[in-house]
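Hi R.,

Here's the chain you asked about this morning:
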Amino acid sequence: MTSENVRSERVSRNPLAPVRDAVHGLIDTSDTAAGFVSPIIDRVIQSRPVQRLRRVKQLGFASHSFVGADHSRYAHAIGTMHIMRKLLRQVGAADSQFLATLQAEFNRVYQPDTPAETEWLYEHILIAALLQDVGELPYQSATRGLFVPDDDVRSWVGLKIGRDTSLWPAKPVFTLACLFGPEIDPLLASLNTNFIAFLMTADYWPDSDLATAFLPVRHMLDGEIDADRIDYVHRDAHHTVGMLGNSGDVISAVITYDDQGPICSDPAPFANFLATRAHLYSTVYFAPQNRFRVMLVKSILRGVRESQELRLAFPLISNQYMSTDSFLEVDDVRLEEEITKLSQSVLKSRLSKRAGTALTEFTTGTKLYRHFWLRDVEGLETAAATADVPVPHDVFFEVFGADAPPSSGVRFSMEGPDGEVELTGIGECNGPHFGVTSNARATLPILGDVLVFYPHNSKGEDIKAVRAAYTDRTLRAALLQKARNEWDGIPPDTRSLKGFNGPTIFISYCTDDIAEVRRLVSQLHHIRRRYFVIMEANQGIGGTTARNSIDGVMNTDSAILVASRSYQQRCSTQLNGNIMHEIRTMHDRRSSSPSDYPVVPVSVHPHHDVTNIPWSLLAMDAPPFTGTVIGNASDTQLRATVEAALAAIDAEIGSRP
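And the predicted structure, written out as tokens:
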């Protein structure tokens, strides 16, 4: 082979080398073993799902507060793989218990013809680290729940891994859809793709015989000191608030991983690491300017979905249920392009006032907005529980509901004077990290805080009422009540409201189907029917959620049962759960005659998927489903289904003796 041929071969086998990163320096993108026919990692990096991450920002809208925070999830994916390679070198010595456990578990679970070699196994772990974010939605903090995989994607992914993915969040489903898709799967022909799939989504396999397999590796992929966190903490801090220590210090202090997580040698790098992570959460991830734009995007997307015309004109951002191809088309750039197109369209007049204001502020920022945090003030919550504070359409607020930082499980190998080695938790070591790792009030904001944005120099009676409630310290409780009791202005109870008519209807549903139920209740509200729906756990006066469910059935004339896979699962796994309390109470009310309490089922999913709901308790051999499947129904189809359900209820009640 000539020197020119050698050079061409080298270039074709490693087209990305060298890769240099502002955070980690030179990054190795080569495969772990030399026996592959063509480079795997480099070709996966060049695939469409990974390249899409170039157009998905790591920190969303944070660059409005930190001008350098424009780095992408593509850089984070490459960095996570790099950190994983360094961790494997750190803990995977030839005689290490970590490596022995990994090989033994793989041979036990997958029973290969020949025992798995180390470098071949490591290739799977690097691929899993590289692909861990390919299922990320654009501006995920704003679009989570607004975009979800359609039934075809969920079913196809479920068949690939032999699991039911109907209840999985969007990200792991889209992640596996990309893994098994035509762009990546053919590149992994020499690897065990199911092993990679499990490593990336193991938390969603709790009832599998694999639940306890590969625990040390899983802690490296998704644990407190894992490759993902080590990269994003250092990367995000590098571009925003600055870093205490560096990734090399953290990795060098890791001794090994076992079934419980990392075992380390020196508390200092981890104190710095955990303190920086807490600083990022309070200062960057929940920066007010970042959250403001999250609120605006949510309002815009919801506004688009409220209008049939806008849904037809802007299908890319209005369709909740996405195919894999649709998902791959949508990134931060496309999402902002569609919002810009909307702002230039005559159809923007179809938006509600709130959505229209959000669109204007997102695209032009014509008003000067200010913000403030509302903190919990003991003793005022009850006093303001019934306060009615009108919220103007140009005031936006958000209840901070993220989980507090968990207590740290990092352990350190400490040698005593007798030579014995003990494992000591980080909370038992001296240092400034105690509160960061264990105290929910160590960082800001705090669970339950309310972030409010209002335009400077606003005028009008509504804004005066907001200011008055702020002055007498009842605004937080009033906004919390509004968040609980309204779905974009839709009340939970119209039974006693003027202008609403017909038999009172209880809506029995599973909270996983909240998007579909919101649309259904919107239709009931639009046509002025009397209904009662439990929108949040503490609604009602029953004292417990179970009592509230029972009272909801007892104090209405009929019910619409929103069947779904999630509803069915709750029936079988939570025999004393709220849904089963509702079904048993319906049974009691129907015991004399079904017309005493009509129950009309509609379904989110295909009817054959919800046959195991205990229909017999409702005196139904086969459920008389009404209308079309509402999971992906158009407004017209949904309206027809609701009208058919109401007609069935009215006819049943009208047939009473």
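The chain has a mean pLDDT of 85.

Let me know if you need anything else.
M.
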